[in-house]
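Morning!

As promised:
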Amino acid sequence: MILATSLAIAAMFAAGAYLMLKRDLIRLIAGMILIGNAANLFIMASGLRRGAAPILPLDEPTADPLVQAMVLTAIVISFATAALALALVYRVYISHYSVDLSRLSAAEEQQAERDEPMTEDLRESVRDDTDGEASPDGRHAREAAIR
Amino acid sequence: MMNPAMLLLVAAFAAPLVVSLLGAIRHSWVPRGAILMTGLAFAAAVWTCIQDDASVNVPWAPTWSMNFSLTLDGLAKMYALLATGIGFFVVLYASKYLALHLHHDHRLLEEQTRFFGFLLLFMASMVGLVMAQDLILIFVFWDLTAIASYFLIGFDRAEEESRSSAQMALLVTGITAIFVLLGALALFQIYGTFALPEIIIASNGGRNTGIAVGLIVLGALAKSAQVPMHFWLPRAMAAPTPVSAYLHSAAMVAAGVFLIGRVYPLVAQYDWMLDALLVIGFASMAVGGIIALTRRVLKQILAYSTISQYGYVVAMFGLGGEKGVAGATFYVLAHALVKSALFMTAGAVTEATGKKNLPDVGGLMRRMPLLAAGSGMAAAGLIALPLTIGFFKDELFFAAAYERGMTLAVMSVVGASLTLAYILRFWRQTFMGVLRTEPEPISGYLVWPVVVLGIASVVGGLWTVPAIWIVDRAASVSADAPIHLHIAYHLDARHENVMAIATWVAGLLIYLTRRIWWPAALGVAHLGSYFGPARLYYAGMRGLNQLSDSVHRIEVRDLRSRVATILMPAGLLVGLAVIVTPNSTSSFAVGALGRDDIPLITMLVASVVSAFVVIVVRDHFRLAISLSSVGFSLAGVYAFMGAPDVTLVALVVETVLSMFMIGMLVLMPRPILRFETEVRAERRYLRRDAIVAVVAAGMAFFVAWGALSRPSPSTEVIDSQTVLTAAVHGKDIVTVILADFRGFDTLGEVTVIALTLLGVISLLRTGRLR
């Protein structure tokens, strides 16, 4: 049973990881959801006992209630994350008319090139240090400076 | 009566707080509030100065032997007087200057609050620094000055130059501050304490102590803008003038030589360190002096002058002995008075004429006689004319240098004559000669601080008692022995006098023959800017930028690579761990598989199959359906695991999520979604994705299998939860755990859901967001 559960967890995780590498943002979120499912299954499987529902009065051996409580939290949180991520994807579609990662990163790259000609600036500032002094506007300025 | 040390600290730190609060209420009160608060701090400094030495010692982190320990000793008194006194005049000056400055740049007057807040924080951290006795405390105040200076230098944040200068100052002084911290930690390692007085008593003059002290001195030299870490200071001129005036005289740059003075009893044990100080001091004197001769921008001349002037101080510390230490301490005092006045002169001239360069101004004597007189007195102080306080600073320097032989005596005369030449050039070409630009009338606030400081320089030269009183006490701390300064005018041919006269003659000659050596000096300046240490700084910055760009390109811009860079190493590391861990039979257990497990296995198979369907489907709606099928199958798994609560929640969640996803897909037009069916994924990506997925699966498999194979043998927690559930009159243990035992967790969870809901709503609202 341990091996079987582990295999199921691994398979679900692999499917999620594979989807997360796709260009399509919706598939990426599907992958996220699958990995979340794998994690939940893992927490459930790590219960110390298996058995009937842990509801009093106990007549027969019951399942581990602790992992169930934890998994409840985990399910709700991963649901919230997935919902928020889906809404974000929708927003990305609204502002870029695309949910294709390659197109989005191309757009980002263009934006970045517009925003940061930083390396150039630094090269300039070496020269700035001698500003005025080094300017080749000839003897006239130099004469004025010597005075 | 309050402890004087505490009183001074409170008075100093109250200033930035009060001013920031004032600014929040009404920004037009800020300059007056700042004047009042610095006045109070100055008064506190004067009052505490005539009190006995006082200490405050509060355990801070006793387990690490860190104490909040302040001592108001002679050295602290002198620097606190400078920081608050010069600070007071600078604030007076700034109260009018800043409004003009902001007006020129078409900026809001509200920004005054930020300026005065940081300026006063600068002052307060200086006051804290000079009293601190704990090395960690010293480091904290040390960095606080760097932070305050960063915001002040970069005050004109709309300008690129100002921002990059602030960054440079922060990086150079901040990185070297790490050396101070390293030195402190090394001293702690050796002596088991951060308390500087204890370390000084216990110090053994060993090699490790020497290295630790050397690190601290290195940080101090960078802060004092000594060669080769001087390049940040001229760039810091991008700051508004009051900041420059303060930073160069009584704060920041002075903090460096202060720290040397503070640890000097340790420094003096090592001859190699004294020699290094001597070399660095004279090098700074030469570099600063020569470059100052070639600059055209008023403030640049003064900036390079500061490098050379602190070179004197460092050199005097290097000369050592009673004369050296007393001279260095005296020098800081005299220099602070006159240099702040000269900077404020430059600012006033620029405000009046609108010109920043020396060649554009001239002949201002007749138009601004008061300013000319005030700055004339200050300039006379800097070039050590008799009847000013500056005369003694050079006299002490010459005396200390002469003691060490002829070579140093000649070098010191040359250094001092450079000072005379560039200050003569600065003052004479500003105030004498042809009038180049007609000045506009300026506020008295821009003139009177200069005049008062100039008069102070002259008074200090006539009536030496107060200066001697202050310096005696300060130098005694640095030398760790009582020091008595003897300064007076002697009308005889003693060597100090001869050297002084030689300096004046040589300086005048340098000034008069400037046409001859001008190209050579310019050459030195160029050489410095092309091959100097600034080049290294820029190269370092460029390298960092390129590194960051390339990391960004590889990792951040492409989300998929980022996912892969997390999954692949994780998988490989787990694989490595599995290989190197000695496997006993109990490491991995197959587990019993009974007839009862068949439904569970069936549901597991169903969920795995659905997960693979999610991978292969092309259409997004089928994807959503198969995804929800995974969730529903898992709900079945939970049901067969004896978890009805989880099953119900999973069913609800899966239903809502599927509806949400399908609803969103409906909102998106088909062409947007169809792209992946059009562009068949490139083959190489398919292979890469498959490899990553397999590695990730391996990782997940081994982690899950290894963990599940070794359950905890104790079920104590389950039993106690069962008992407790009965005690709180609950029936469903899971519900009780969530609602009672971990109620706060559940509350947090509910909050997350609420926040998510808010986020989703605001994201889904119409309107383009760019």
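Chain A touches chain B through 103 residues (CB under 8 Å).

Hope this helps with the figure draft.
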